[in-house]
From TrEMBL:
PANTHER family in UniProt: GLYCOGEN PHOSPHORYLASE (PTHR11468), GLYCOGEN PHOSPHORYLASE, LIVER FORM (PTHR11468:SF3)
Subcellular location: Cytoplasm
Reactions this protein catalyses: [(1->4)-alpha-D-glucosyl](n) + phosphate = [(1->4)-alpha-D-glucosyl](n-1) + alpha-D-glucose 1-phosphate
GO cellular component entries: cytoplasm
GO-annotated molecular function: glycogen phosphorylase activity; pyridoxal phosphate binding
Lineage of the organism: Bacteria, Pseudomonadati, Pseudomonadota, Alphaproteobacteria, Rhodobacterales
Name of the protein in question: Alpha-1,4 glucan phosphorylase
Principal EC category: transferase
Length: 796
């Protein structure tokens, strides 16, 4: 497409789709017109892919996920369709600012963190690899809350990305599926009919996901909850307007909000309803499609692979059995076998508080037939394995992790360490019964968004050096290695990083009114706020460092900017205190005339995908400092390494694999191993002991306790200080001393010529962390699916 063709397409949509005249168009109208012009280019390859899936009778992958953290889509589509020149040219011609237009798009925050972002990277990789697939989730009216700071405190505001029209979706009113809850069960022999007492409708909305060079397009189908019966005209006519609207409001509640919690099960009926709602709608849609093509349900596992992203869709097991057994008349054991061969399950956490369990009473009330089937699945499992332990039901609770395991033919962890710990801890017994079921698929990230699009400077340098093949064959980055000896390459590598830092510094100055020196180390920790991720350890180190600079301001300190980003779950009190402490520390440090040249703290609010795309390319140092054994994998860690940041990190999650690949000398390692953590925890005095041994740590904690950062309320942080001194489950104190040592090693290395070599090695050796590699692994080890044959690029 030429710039002038693009311009005509934009003008056409402005007038005929949006009904706007050039003279009155707002930035919103231009952005929508550009989006529609780009979307038009997606439709043909997208339809082409669908047609080929049907014509070739290809096996399809169905990715069921409560979350798809897709972020903005316009730039992604432009890049994958290679329309940058056309779009930029058209915008210039129209006198519009291209960057500003891209920034106008709301960030679709349909996820909490890593789990949801992984699903989004997987969707893009499946399209790039021409793996016929469909993502299924919920079209939340309100995504993850918007975070604002007020007096340093986190304030949550509703996120309303749907206030404006969403340019990328196609409404599918004809894809409307009835979903029921509650009611009673009528058993007929071993089968049963379920008569729900409450019904609503799941309506589909399709977003095309286009792969690199437009060679394939899959669909993300998100369900919206609609009432079965519209509003009540009789009540309305009597003047009872609120009551008339009630059924509609109640039904719609199901797709109203994304639960803002990435750790604790909400225990909310609504959450269980959401889970059943989207899982049941998706399964019905899958079976409908299957039955339109094939007439033998026994072939389901050959033609469909259904992935459960965490346990949120775990009800898929019993629901699929119900559809096959109760509704299609298949024998129960056969139905379980077919369901199991079709389903697989990804585990994302070992934290006991994050493993879903539902009260049997609640489950029986909402899903009476499913509870019966869960009992039978359990009995069958006991019979098959000769086990006498009831596995999926315990103490009046249904354990969704165990249920998912039993109903899946493969269960995967998301990093080598995590998979190993799964076998040894949460799924120890089940693993002994099914020793080949657990497999590892280390996470990955899409290089299109997380390098090509977010870091154009580094991308251009890479392409100039080794050609463009790396974009969909990321392991080609290793061809950069010989160039790491070349001083002109290194200079250009350093210049790209520096220019990214200058851009970020300008944004900090303009948007946050904080000035930082781009010569400083940009030290970044961005992720959900959680005790296991230990933002508070990073803060304590910052405070200790600050106190040391104050003691001796003229000692030639290496300047540093500590950058934080992340949201705390609204109900997680301790995490919210960490948020506030970060802001309070920033306030004191940034205005300290003795130290602020050397140390600043920046905490931009409302961390999201778009902010990550801004911060990661400008980072020198990536903080991956979770308590070993607690972070299942991490994916931010991969994005940073890929963009030439060095990691300071523990041997946790995928850090282990990153360090193996980029080599120990290019990684700042510290802290206890997962085994050491478990050992040390047995000593109840671990925190006090660590504090007694490290005067810097003691002083930092005392400074927090003293009210130095909250003079107007000196007791504000007693909670944090007491927790660290007496409890410290996440071993902040015991790892602090080594963390400090590693941080000073960073100071020593930064600014030396070798730093750029180390950074370049991180980029060159991160090719394995492409989500393309991960998806190939799922296709081979779990889905038994092949890419569509002979696919051609639609865009060059
Ligand atoms: C993350 N999990 C892991 N959970 O913490 C991270 N949980 O190590 C890993 O890299 C990532 O998954 C991808 O595998 C999450 O992000 C959630 O967000 C979540 C949401 C709702 C309920 C429970």
């Amino acid at each position: 497409m030429t710039p002038s063709e693009m311009k005509n397409a934009i003008l056409h949509h402005l007038v005929y789709t949006l009904g706007k005249d050039v003279s009155t168009a707002h930035i919103y109208d231009w952005r929508m017109a550009l989006s529609f012009a780009v979307r038009d280019q997606i439709v043909d390859p997208w339809f082409g892919a669908t047609r080929r899936s049907y014509a070739g009778k290809l096996k399809r992958v169905y990715y069921l996920s409560m979350e798809f953290l897709i972020g903005r889509l316009l730039k992604d589509a432009i890049i994958n369709l290679r329309l940058e020149d056309a779009a930029l040219g058209a915008m210039n011609d129209l006198g519009l600012n291209y960057e500003q237009i891209l920034e106008d798009e709301p960030d679709a925050a349909l996820g909490n963190g890593g789990l949801g972002r992984l699903a989004a990277c997987f969707m893009e990789s499946m399209s790039t690899l021409a793996c016929p697939a469909m993502g299924y989730g919920i079209r939340y009216e309100h995504g993850l809350f918007r975070q604002r700071f007020e007096d340093g405190r986190q304030v949550e505001e509703p996120e309303d990305w749907l206030n404006q029209r969403h340019a990328w979706e196609f409404e599918r009113p004809e894809v409307a599926i009835d979903i029921g809850f509650g009611g009673h069960v009528q058993e007929i022999g071993k089968r049963a009919n379920w008569y729900p007492s409450e019904m609503l409708i799941a309506m589909g909305h399709d977003t095309p996901v286009i792969g690199w060079k437009g060679r394939w397009g899959n669909t993300l189908r998100l369900w919206e909850a609609r009432p079965m019966h519209g509003f009540d005209l009789q009540r309305f006519n009597r003047g009872d307007y609120a009551a008339a609207a009630e059924p509609e409001a109640l039904a719609r509640t199901l797709s109203r909000v994304l639960y803002p919690d990435d750790t604790t099960e909400q225990g909310k009926e609504l959450r269980l309803k959401q889970e059943f709602f989207f899982t049941a709608a998706s399964l019905r849609d899958i079976l409908r499609r299957f039955e339109s093509e094939y007439n033998d349900l026994k072939r389901l596992p050959q033609k469909a692979a259904i992935q459960m992203n965490d346990t949120h869709p775990a009800i898929a097991g019993p629901e699929l059995v119900r559809l096959l057994h109760d509704e299609r008349g298949m024998d129960f054991e056969e139905a379980v076998g077919i369901a199991r061969n079709t389903l697989s399950y990804t585990n994302h956490t070992l934290l006991p508080e994050a493993l879903e369990r539902w009260d049997e009473g609640l489950m029986g009330r909402l899903l009476p037939r499913h509870l019966q089937l869960i009992y039978r699945i359990n009995e069958l499992h006991m019979k098959d394995t000769g086990s006498r332990k009831v596995t999926a039901v315990e103490d009046g609770h249904v354990k969704m992790g165990e249920l998912s395991f039993i109903m899946a033919h493969k269960v995967n962890g998301v990093s080598a360490l995590h998979t190993d710990l799964m076998k040894k801890t949460v799924f120890k017994d089940l693993h002994e019964q099914h020793p080949t079921r657990i497999v590892n698929e280390t996470n990955g990230v899409t290089p299109r968004r997380w390098l090509l699009s977010c870091n154009p400077r580094l991308s251009s340098l890479i392409t100039e050096t080794i050609g463009e093949g790396w974009v969909d064959n990321l392991e080609q980055l290793e061809r950069l290695e010989p160039h790491i000896k070349d001083s002109s390459f290194l200079e250009r590598f350093a210049a790209a990083k520096r220019a990214n830092k200058v851009d970020l510094a300008r944004w900090f100055a303009d948007d946050l009114k904080i000035s930082v020196d781009p010569e400083s180390i940009f030290d970044v920790q961005i992720k959900r706020i959680h005790e296991y991720k230990r933002q508070h350890m990073n803060l304590l180190e910052t405070i200790a460092h600050w106190l040391e600079i104050r003691d001796n301001p003229n000692a030639g300190w290496v300047p540093r900017v500590k950058i934080f980003g992340g949201k705390a779950a609204p109900g997680y009190v301790f995490a919210k205190e960490i948020v506030r402490l970060t802001n309070d520390v920033a306030k004191v440090l940034n205005s300290d005339p003795l130290t602020s040249r050397y140390l600043k703290v920046v905490y931009p609010p409302n961390y999201n995908v778009s902010l990550a795309e801004r911060l990661i390319p400008a980072a020198d140092l990536s903080e991956q400092i979770s308590t070993a054994g607690k972070e299942a994998s991490g994916t931010g860690n991969m994005k940073f390494a890929l963009n030439g940041a060095l990691t300071i990190g523990t041997l946790d999650g995928a850090n282990v694999e990153i360090r193996d690949l980029v080599k120990a000398e290019n990684f700042f390692l510290f802290g206890m191993t997962a085994e050491e953590v478990m050992e040390r925890r047995k000593d109840s005095g671990h925190a006090a002991e660590a504090i007694a041994k490290d005067s810097r740590l003691a002083r930092a904690i005392e400074t927090v306790r003293s009210g130095r950062f909250s003079p107007e309320e000196p007791g504000r942080y007693h909670g944090i200080a007491d927790n660290l001194t007496h409890h410290d489950y996440f071993m902040v104190c015991s790892d602090f001393t080594d963390f400090w040592r590693a941080q000073r090693e960073v100071d020593g290395a930064f600014g030396k010529p070798n730093w750029t070599c180390m950074a370049a090695y991180n980029t060159a050796r991160s090719g394995w962390f492409s989500s393309d590699r991960t998806i190939r692994g799922y296709m081979a080890d779990i889905w038994n699916a092949a890419p569509a044959p002979e696919v051609e690029d639609a865009a060059e």
